Amino acid sequence: MTISVPQVEKLHEEAWRLSRCLSMGSHVELPSLGNPLEEEVNGSLRFSLYYDQLQSRLVVTVLEARGLPVRDFSRSVDPFVRVRLLWARHDNEEEKGEQSSPSLQCVLHEWQSRMVKDSSSPTFGDQFSCYMEEEDVPHTTVRFEVRDFDKFSRHGFLGEVRVSLCDMKISNPLEVLEDLQTSQKDMVGEVLLSLKYLHTLQRLEVGLLKIRALPQQSKKDKVRLYARISVLCNQFKLRHQKSTAKTLCEMTVFNEVMMFTLPDPQIRACCIVVSVYEIHAARKSSKRLVGQVTFGKGKGSEDEHWRLMMRSICQPIAKWHPLLI
């Protein structure tokens, strides 16, 4: 049986896509462990911004991308653009008592352009708009993420552009061309977690205590939060548990403990991912990822928390962690 070159390339492509899916587990991303797809960024994105003062509407149009990199095996790319509006709290709205971090933001709106198949210089022409008070415009950042569509759901990262509207004059439509940059995470909240490992029982206890996040005051429908805690070993998801859903407020209290049985070899090689989701009762497709916390093998504060847990004797260690998106 003879296999042609196109068939070989197709088999390589499917194997590459499948490896990306299996290596990370479904619905789990690792924001703190580094991503080889983000090491090199090429290309540019053209878009336009406009604030209609009469109607109090922000209009964002994704026009086109140019010079996007292609995949190694197939020499193709299926790009689309994800748009997020990030709103930062006004300085005079900080609480006098227990203050949130000054860099804390919330996602006001999130949109996605259509996917353009097999094009490194796609034309989109997708327009999105939302109601926005004029006083909120200077506190808003528009984040464009250019991604490579993947049918296994783990879309490749091609680059991003972010624009702070406080620096832009958009009372008339403004067209902008920007080079793509490497990814930067935004802090959208904080999570108070406790960790305890019982060596004799080989049991890990993860306590979800509190989540601090900015409520979206413009949202009229009821929003609830829940967390999904996943245990990964060598990047393969072993198991997960979900918390109950609580009504979102600036300080949402959970006080729930989730237990995982992990033998000593696994506890030394595993990784914990805490994914926080919000759900809207009035929507059919209600679940949206708010942000994640990851305990990996790096040198961050999350890993210091892990080391303190391993050195403690049957005592829970609690610590605040940034929630990133």
UniProtKB/TrEMBL annotation:
GO terms for cellular component: axon; dense core granule; plasma membrane; synaptic vesicle membrane. GO terms for molecular function: calcium ion binding; calcium-dependent phospholipid binding; clathrin binding; phosphatidylserine binding; SNARE binding. One of its GO terms (biological process) is calcium ion-regulated exocytosis of neurotransmitter. Residues 41-178, 187-321 form the C2 domain. PROSITE patterns: C2. InterPro entries: C2_dom (IPR000008), C2_domain_sf (IPR035892). Belongs to the synaptotagmin family. This is C2 domain-containing protein.
